[in-house]
Design brief:
- With 244 residues, the chain is an all-beta fold.
- The protein has no helices and 23 strands.
- The chain has strands spanning 2-8, 14-23, 26-29, 33-36, 41-49, 54-61, 67-76, 79-82, 86-89, 93-101, 106-113, 119-128, 131-134, 138-153, 158-165, 171-180, 183-186, 190-193, 197-205, 210-217, 223-232, 235-238, 242-243.
- The strands form 4 sheets. Strands 10, 11, 12, 13, 14, 15, 16, 17 and 18 form a 9-stranded antiparallel β-sheet that branches.
């Protein structure tokens, strides 16, 4: 099944999820299910925990002071049901992203921590039934971070976070994380683009065993650009940028 989360503007901006079923080259959908009713959720991300066979939705609670929350969903047929939302950050969060570490069987969330100078922060999550619990948040960059996205390298068993920073200078950066239990540690931050790098997306290519980062390159008329990253140990190196 495919699971899509979105803000339903005609329905009072509720956070809503719908389950899709792919057949051949077509997709059909079940009835939408509301997971958040109190205001506009933002930076909503969906990740699948293949260990517990649960969907985890992470988001910023717009009506709750901008805190970070996560909720566990269970797909049944073409519908989905949810547990209780749980707070992973008490401060105002932004640019929330998430990935699943299939080596440690943990969900990892990355976000901008507005309660701590907008530092780039990550937290490890454990799904149990329809509940989710969190380890201690870890700062991976002590500066203002934006446009975070993350992926999991299934060959090296590492989490990779890509982000833009405006402090001390505009640049696109990436860092490799290692999950151990309910915590995560990070290697050295690497610059992949020395100028503004907005609207970042990251994924892992299981054929070439490489990380691919896409972004809007502010130094090149905001053109869509991609780079291939190679993880080695706790670091990552990049090939030449390619405009797509």
């Amino acid at each position: 099944k495919v699971v899509i989360a979105y803000t339903d503007k005609p329905n009072s901006n509720t956070g809503t999820v719908v389950v899709g079923t792919v057949t051949g080259t077509s997709i059909s959908f079940g009835s939408p299910v509301v997971f958040y009713q109190n205001g506009v959720p933002s930076w909503t991300k969906v990740v699948f925990d293949s260990n517990s066979n649960k969907v985890v939705i992470v988001y910023r609670d717009g009506a709750g002071g901008g805190v970070g929350k996560a909720i566990v969903g269970t797909v049944s047929g073409d519908s989905i049901s949810f547990g209780t939302p749980t707070q992973f950050e008490s401060g105002n969060v932004g640019y929330v992203s998430a990935t699943f570490d299939s080596n440690s069987n943990k969900v990892v969330i990355s976000y901008q921590d507005g309660g701590n100078s907008n530092y780039g922060t990550a937290v490890v999550c454990t799904v149990s039934g329809t509940s989710i619990s969190f380890g201690t948040p870890v700062v991976y960059y002590s500066g203002s971070t934006l446009f975070q996205d993350m992926t999991f390298d299934t060959v090296n068993n590492k989490v990779v976070v890509a982000y833009h920073t405006s402090s001390p200078s505009n640049s696109g950066r990436a860092v490799v994380g290692t999950v151990s239990g309910t915590s995560i540690s990070f290697g050295t931050v690497v610059v992949f683009n020395a100028d503004s790098s907005n609207d970042i997306g990251a994924t892992f290519d299981t054929n070439e065993n490489k990380v691919v980062i896409g972004y809007k390159d502010g130094a090149n008329s905001s053109r869509g650009t991609a780079m291939v990253g190679t993880v080695s140990g706790t670091s990552i190196t990049f090939g030449a940028k390619q405009v797509y």
